[in-house]
Design goal:
The complex is a heterodimer of chains A (317) and B (271). With 317 residues, chain A is an all-alpha fold. Chain A is built from 13 helices and no strands. Chain A has one domain: Orthogonal Bundle (MetI-like fold), CATH 1.10.3720.10. In chain A, helix 4 packs antiparallel against helix 10 and helix 5 crosses helix 8. Chain B is mainly α. Chain B has a single domain, classed as MetI-like (MetI-like fold, Orthogonal Bundle). Classes of the chains: A mainly alpha (317), B mainly alpha (271). Chains A and B meet through helix 1, helix 2, helix 4, helix 5 and helix 6 of A and helix 1, helix 4, helix 5, helix 6 and helix 7 of B.
């Protein structure tokens, strides 16, 4: 090494001896660092996730019931036959899950896009709007459910009072057999639209201004610029938002349990697949059937995810 | 280009509506927590009432909430710390060696419905006599934290240039030494983001604690249900309890807003 080189002042302090004293263990660790780093997390996941999922798969083929210690028998695909022909609880739960997810995603993406576009360009007071956007998102979902339960209470709630002022009669909201599910959808939209706003805003901010400018010079109206320039460029981010929200919406549990309690209410008004599976497991201890429902539920989630990521790849530039 | 005046008027009024819609329910909850149950039932006193701390007295003294606050803090803190210890090196490896399949396995945890894990866990942990203790509660919350941390940190390490590590290797550091002395100190913002998000998600988690906690390890989201009886609801107490659960996490989020937002939107723009 040439003596002309000045010592590097920006490099970290390294004891010169560290190379020489490299122990056998250290050499081994450095050679195998790839797995040394990844293995603990992978092992944790394997023990706590892969093994339980495999067990759930096994339980779905048995008549396990009652206590977790009780004997159970292998009954093949009988549970699947029973569940898939159950038009009383299972199929309505599937329908509610699909409806809930579809409706909340639709509104969250439309509203989220609108709000993100409003926030896109800097303005005064931006900070305060961002605070308002963040708060519902980090609020504890169970507490949010309780909060809306008071607001939507048919007798003392603010919602009916507001309706009264504009001359509309009281609504049953969460207490109604037909209105409970739409009301829980509203709560979900209130809490999670901000999530879509933040994701889309991150996407919008990362877009370059040039295509916008070019379209403006070509005389495109603001709607045309959105429809033909911004939206196509933002599409991958929109898909990410749908994917992340979709997974969580399918699995919604907290606000449904907080507002309607066990079994999704006395008439199972808001009983989605997740609520149904929970009830089968921990209210009825019907482990065999609940495992079957869970495996089917799991396959539905994987299917939806696969369809969306497949579409995302198709859209990738 | 500056937006036109009509657009600015439209934007500002629309944003006022948005802010009101998002904030009003939260403020309503906090207001109700300072009302007596008599005032809550009296619609004439919706906005004008004499504030009382009685509900908070009930929540903090009779309902034992100080203990539940401690439980929630301990579980969220332990789950986050352990998940960071496991997750940060794993994310580093997965990012530097492009371990796509391994990453997918960890991220599957975000997709799997929690109930499908609870049955086998309940079986195993009740045989080990661990149900109702902190160990199993912390492990279950790590199931939420770990994938989140791996996801955020992988994105962070992907964006960190490798040149500094290479320079450190030239200067005589080992690979692990370079990770420990160069990469890790540079990753503090990423680790903070991942840690804060993990803490929030653990604090808010409900389903795992509902099944796996005991009467003295209960976390706050489960303890809220103490105010919901079969026949009647103590609305004042319930709103005070809901405020005690949400207010701390909302305040934390406000102080570290930048980190929370970057964590929530991690990976959103990679396409």
């Amino acid at each position: 090494m040439s003596a002309v080189l000045t010592p590097r002042t920006d490099s970290p302090e390294v004891p010169a001896a560290s190379v020489d004293t490299t122990s056998a263990w250290s050499r081994w660790a450095n050679e195998h660092r790839k797995w040394l780093f990844a293995a603990p997390a992978m092992a944790f996941v394997a023990v706590l996730i892969i093994f339980p999922v495999a067990w759930t798969g096994y339980l779905s083929l048995t008549d396990a019931e009652g206590s977790v210690r009780a004997e159970s028998e292998f009954i093949g695909f009988q549970n699947y036959l029973d569940v898939l022909t159950d038009t009383d609880r299972f199929w309505p739960a599937v329908w509610r899950t699909v409806l809930f997810t579809g409706v909340v995603l639709f509104f969250e993406v439309i509203l989220g896009m609108a709000i993100a576009l409003l926030l896109w360009r800097p303005f005064r007071g931006e900070k305060w709007v961002r605070v308002a956007i963040l708060l519902p998102l980090v609020a504890t979902p169970v507490a949010v459910g309780m909060m809306w339960r008071l607001i939507f209470d048919p007798n003392i709630g603010m919602a009916n009072q507001l309706l009264g002022w504009i001359g509309i009669g009281p609504q049953p909201w969460l207490a109604g057999q037909n209105s409970a599910l739409p009301t829980t959808m509203f709560i979900d939209i209130w809490q999670w639209t901000p999530m879509v706003v933040l994701i889309l805003l991150a996407g919008l901010t990362s877009l370059s201004d040039e295509p916008q400018e070019a379209a403006r010079i070509d005389g495109a109206s603001s709607w045309q610029r959105f429809r033909h320039v911004t939206l196509p460029l933002l599409m991958p981010t929109v898909i990410v938002a749908i994917l992340l929200r979709g997974i969580d919406a399918l699995k919604t549990f907290d606000i449904l349990y907080a507002t309607k309690g066990r079994g999704g209410g006395s008439f199972h008004e808001v009983e989605t697949l997740n609520v149904y599976a929970y009830g089968l497991s921990f209210d009825y201890n019907d482990y065999g059937v609940s495992s079957t429902v869970l495996i089917i539920f799991f396959l539905i989630i994987i299917g939806v995810m696969w369809a969306l990521t497949y579409r995302k790849k198709g859209l990738g530039r | 280009m500056k937006p036109s005046k009509p657009y600015r008027v439209f934007r500002n009024s629309a944003l006022v509506v948005v802010v009101f819609a998002l904030m009003a329910p939260l403020l309503w909850m906090i207001a109700a927590s300072f009302k007596t149950n008599v005032d809550i039932y009296d619609t004439a006193k919706a906005f004008v009432f004499s504030p009382s701390l009685k509900n908070y007295e009930t929540v903090l003294q009779q309902a034992n909430y100080l203990e539940f606050i401690g439980n929630s803090l301990w579980v969220a803190f332990a789950a986050t710390t352990l998940s960071l210890l496991l997750g940060v090196p794993a994310a580093y490896s997965m990012s530097r060696f492009s371990m796509k399949k391994s990453a997918l396995v960890v991220l599957m945890a975000r997709v799997i419905p929690g109930v499908s894990l609870l049955v086998p866990w309940y079986y195993v942990f009740s045989n080990l006599k661990l149900v109702g203790g902190f160990t199993v509660l912390i492990l279950s919350h790590m199931f939420v934290s770990l994938p989140l941390i791996v996801y955020i940190m992988m994105g962070y390490f992907d964006g960190l240039p490798t040149e500094l590590e290479e320079a450190a290797l030239v200067d005589g550091l080992t690979h692990i030494g370079a990770f420990r002395r160069i990469t890790l100190p540079l990753s503090v913002p990423g680790v903070a983001t991942a840690g804060i998000l993990s803490f929030i998600f653990s604090w808010n988690n409900f389903m795992f604690a509902l099944v796996l906690s005991g009467s003295d390890t209960k976390t706050l989201p489960v303890a809220i249900f103490d105010f919901v009886g079969y026949a009647s609801i103590d609305w004042g107490g319930l709103m005070a309890a809901a405020t005690v659960v949400t207010l701390p996490i909302m305040l934390i989020a406000l102080f570290v807003q930048k980190y929370v937002v970057s964590g929530l939107t991690a990976g959103a723009t990679k396409g």
